[in-house]
Structure formats: structure tokens, C-alpha cells
């Protein structure tokens, strides 16, 4: 399990780190191979691969950012997210609610383009977890809409949410997926796909443009965090907008998070780079949204 990205130098980043994962998956062919390994079926040619894809719908709303957003030639959509704990609790990551929000954002984006329900694509929202997200010791957890009164009846709305447990040690798992899990867990590359990923990571570490991009983003977030520390945010305390945060946070944490949000940083960036939990950042963001109405 990797350390929090905020404590890593660029040369230390690996495939499980959010920034590196996005860069590696920009390669359409390699991205296709990873998706086919995860889904255990062909996905066809990827006509579009966007990393760190942002969705924003209102002028003062905060965008969400998807790690790797793909469209296939078969018009299916694949959103792949690499998820580390980074010293946070599983509950604080709010993965079920996040998967719901990501799915709805994809759908709204398509409806904005066509306004026809029939054009909504089949879609897979996938979380590649370096931990067991539901602690049931399954190698993956697939969720689809199903009727409670008749379990044989599915809604067939074309959506699925899949959570991969890379810590799984059982034998009832496809060989190539086992090897991908092992690589994500820190073992050496031992098949064609993981060797390609490893080679891509080593090449990426030498990419000075990406290095500069990573450092710039980290510095911006660190500066915003320091700015939030120094700003009194007395007004916020008086209005009770940020009256402490869940998971043991205090008013200073709220001030720092608020400063970063006001400077345009996304919830995901703040969680990945600054070590706060998703729940902490969302609480402050919701407080800000309420005061802007």
C-alpha cells in the first residue's frame, strides 16, 4: 500500500498513485489492456481516453474529477479510479456514495449533449482498491440494480459499479487479474501487461513535463493549505459555517480546506495531496455551497 501522495517525490510515484495512474492510462492501448484485464472481457478500441476529466454544471458549483474516463467504439463508458486509503478509514472515503455521484455525473453529461434517454451509454464505474472496500474477502464486488421482491429481475439500466479488492489472496481469481493485483500490491511485474505498466512507470519518471506538472500542482495545494492556516476565517467562525470537522478535525483544518476550495481545487485533489478525508472536505464544501445560495 503506497504512502499518501503528498509525502512522495515524483521519482517515488508508482502505478497506484493518482497522478501516475492517470498519466499511464493516457496510453489508449495500455488502458484498453488494463480495462480488459479488470473486466475479463474485450472492450474494443477506445475512441476517447481522458484523464482527470472534470464535470461542472453550475457557475459556482465545485467540479468532480474522474481519474480515467474512457469511451469505447461500442459506445460504452468506463470510469476507472485508483483508490488508496492514505491513512484514512474505509468509511470516510464514502465509496458507495461517490460511485453514485460519478455515475450520475456521466449521465448528466450525456443528457446535456442529446437530451434523449435512449442515448445514455452503458457504463462501468470501477474502483481499483488497495484494500478490501467491504471487508467480505471477495476479489471484486459488482453492483447492479436488482428487484428486491424478485432477485431474478434486473433493472437493466446499463450501469454497473465494480470495486476491486487488490489485497485478495484466494485462488478463485483469473490468473491475469491475480498478476495485476500482485503488481499493484508491490510485487515485481511477472506477465506481459504488468511489465508494460512497469516500463511505462519508469519512462514516466523521466518525463520532465509531467514532473513539472506534478510539482506545480503540489506546490499550489501546499500554498493554499498554508494560506488557509494563516487566514483567520473569523467570519466563518462567527457564522458557524465551518464549526469543526468530522474525524477529529478542528477549525484550523476547516480554514485550510476552505482556502483550497476557494482557489478552485477539487475535493479529490485536496484528499489526494493534503491527507484530509473525503468526508472532511465534503463537509466544508457543503457549508460553502449553502452560504453561496
Key traits:
293 residues; alpha/beta; 2 domains; six-stranded mixed β-sheet; 44% helix; globular
- Overall structural domain count: 2
Give the end-to-end Cα distance, rounded to a whole number of Å: 41 Å
- Average per-residue pLDDT, rounded, comes to 80
User: Cα-atom Rg, whole angstroms?
Assistant: 20 Å
- β-sheet strand percentage: 15-25%
Shape: globular
Question: What fraction, in percent, of the residue positions are helical?
Answer: 40-55%
**Residue ranges: pLDDT <50 for 5 or more in a row?**
1-5, 55-65, 232-249
Write the layout of secondary structure elements.
Elements: H1 18-24, H2 28-39, E1 46-55, E2 64-72, E3 77-83, H3 90-93, H4 95-114, E4 123-129, E5 140-143, E6 159-165, H5 175-184, H6 192-204, H7 208-230, H8 234-239, H9 251-262, H10 267-274, H11 278-292
Amino acid at each position: 500500500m503506497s504512502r499518501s501522495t503528498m509525502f512522495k517525490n515524483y521519482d517515488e510515484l508508482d502505478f497506484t498513485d493518482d497522478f501516475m495512474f492517470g498519466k499511464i492510462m493516457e496510453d489508449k492501448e495500455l488502458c484498453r489492456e488494463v480495462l480488459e484485464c479488470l473486466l475479463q472481457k474485450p472492450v474494443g478500441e477506445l475512441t476517447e481516453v481522458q484523464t482527470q476529466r472534470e464535470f461542472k454544471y453550475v457557475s459556482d458549483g465545485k467540479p468532480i474529477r474522474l481519474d480515467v474516463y474512457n469511451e469505447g467504439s461500442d459506445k460504452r463508458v468506463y470510469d476507472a479510479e485508483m483508490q488508496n486509503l492514505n491513512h484514512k478509514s474505509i468509511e470516510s472515503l464514502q465509496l458507495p456514495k461517490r460511485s453514485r455521484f460519478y455515475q450520475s455525473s456521466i449521465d448528466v453529461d450525456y443528457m446535456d449533449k442529446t437530451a434523449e434517454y435512449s442515448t445514455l451509454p452503458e457504463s462501468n464505474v470501477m474502483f481499483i482498491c488497495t484494500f478490501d472496500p467491504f471487508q467480505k474477502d471477495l476479489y471484486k464486488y459488482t453492483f447492479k440494480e436488482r428487484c428486491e421482491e424478485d432477485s431474478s429481475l434486473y433493472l437493466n439500466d446499463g450501469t454497473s459499479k465494480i470495486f476491486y479488492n487488490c489485497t485478495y489472496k484466494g485462488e478463485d481469481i483469473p490468473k491475469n487479474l491475480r498478476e495485476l493485483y500482485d503488481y499493484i500490491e508491490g510485487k515485481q511485474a511477472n506477465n506481459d501487461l504488468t511489465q508494460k505498466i512497469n516500463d511505462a512507470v519508469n519512462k514516466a519518471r523521466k518525463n520532465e513535463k509531467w514532473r513539472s506538472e506534478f510539482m506545480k500542482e503540489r506546490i499550489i495545494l501546499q500554498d493554499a493549505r498554508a494560506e488557509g492556516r494563516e487566514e483567520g476565517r473569523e467570519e466563518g467562525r462567527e457564522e458557524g459555517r465551518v464549526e469543526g470537522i468530522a474525524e477529529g478535525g478542528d477549525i484550523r483544518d476547516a480554514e485550510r480546506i476552505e482556502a483550497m476550495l476557494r482557489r478552485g481545487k477539487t475535493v479529490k485533489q485536496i484528499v489526494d495531496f493534503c491527507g484530509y478525508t473525503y468526508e472532511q472536505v465534503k463537509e466544508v464544501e457543503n457549508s460553502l455551497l449553502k452560504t453561496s445560495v
